[in-house]
Amino acid sequence: MSKLLDPKVMMAIKELSLSAKMTIDGFMSGINKSTIKGSGLEFSQYRSYQPGDDLRSLDWKMFARSDRYYIRESEVETNISIRFLLDASASMQHQDGDFTKMDYARYLAASLAYLGNRQGDAIGLYVFKEGGVFSLAPKQDFQHLSRLFYQIEQIQASGHFTRPVHYKELYAGSGKRELLVLMTDMYQQGDEIFNLLDTLNTLRHEVIVFHLMSANELELDFKGYSTFEDLESGKSIQIDQQQVKNTYQQKLQAFLSDTRTKLLDKGIFYRMMRTDMPLDEALRDFLNQRNKLKI
């Protein structure tokens, strides 16, 4: 199964619905299980009966054994709205091997959308591109999931990141809190992505950031290249990779550490994700880390 879930192989499938199903089926158990007590199916604990409690929750077997009234509580699953935010600026065209960061973001978003939909959550989309924000309101049905897959497939990464003047779409929702999952390479001309995250924080949403990095940029391993071009500004620079490698990696690690610290200080869940890591492994690691933080 791992071989089939390698991004290079998944690209050949060219159907997000199929690849998402393969990624999720069989080993994932959810990203938003709550600890709210109620009348669900999974037993949690007993507590003493209090006046006003629903009599239908009384456990009569416990009463027969103890001659006391107990309420049987369970953990319930809470349905939420999840909106996937995709950075569609030109830097997401950065390529390592046969696929780009945008390709990886597509499959990552589709896989988590499939998971959320299967759990009964409402799924929506924001695409941040030059000139505006594309918005698809959250809904919970399979036809809507197909529309979301179609919109993700149509994304073409180009231009600069969306300017704040176009953020009106962010305020046009239902006003309810959502789980927002941003997929970006954190490439900024200024602080535009940090400013976006500040805006999302003011709306009191829970935010997760997947910071996509390719192996060749993490390791400065661009075989045969000495000239590098900025995909957004068009500027180019010539470097000797071996000569600058140590300095580059020191500055890169400082940048990654600073980015992580800034986001955690804002109460944002941060995860750097390598695009050469098979999606099933990457998502399993993410879910395990997230569940540990919720304990």
From TrEMBL:
Recorded superkingdom: Bacteria
InterPro entries hit by this protein: DUF58 (IPR002881), vWFA_dom_sf (IPR036465)
Pfam families, alphabetized: DUF58
SUPFAM superfamilies named among the record's database cross-references: vWA-like
Segments passing through the bilayer: none
Domain DUF58: 45-251
Name of the protein in its database record: Uncharacterized protein DUF58
Organism: Pedobacter nutrimenti
Lineage: Bacteria, Pseudomonadati, Bacteroidota, Sphingobacteriia, Sphingobacteriales
